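Need a sequence for this fold. Nothing fancy.
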């Protein structure tokens, strides 16, 4: 089992910044170099959407077009933690943000955190 705990959400004004953290733990995570970590977001009644991902071992990163140039994903191997730095936030970035981990490349088959709310006021 892998446990993922997000933190860092909150209320921020448009144009502001937040940094989300995702702390990973669990016996299975000892092979963390094989995992791909991701951030997703979801609004009430809507489908969850991809935000960004990073390969734990190589650090390759991917972003949704809607966040390119504003969000940055990174990982701290020593702390087993993945971050999502969010700059130039917009009201349309208001979602619950979820951290996920997968060994297969398919996040639907992987592990998920409980989510953290991000609210951007105009």
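Here you go.
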């Amino acid at each position: 089992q892998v446990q993922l705990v997000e933190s860092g959400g909150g209320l921020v004004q448009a144009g502001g910044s937040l940094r989300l953290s995702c702390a990973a733990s669990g016996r299975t995570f000892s092979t963390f170099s094989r995992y791909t970590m991701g951030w997703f977001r979801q609004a009430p009644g809507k489908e969850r959407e991809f935000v960004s991902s990073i390969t734990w071992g190589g650090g390759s990163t991917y972003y949704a077009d809607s966040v390119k140039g504003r969000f940055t994903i990174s990982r701290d191997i020593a702390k087993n933690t993945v971050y999502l730095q969010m700059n130039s936030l917009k009201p349309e970035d208001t979602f619950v943000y979820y951290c996920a981990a997968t060994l297969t490349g398919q996040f639907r088959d992987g592990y998920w955190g409980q989510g953290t709310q991000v609210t951007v006021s105009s």
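For context: The longest strand covers residues 18-25.
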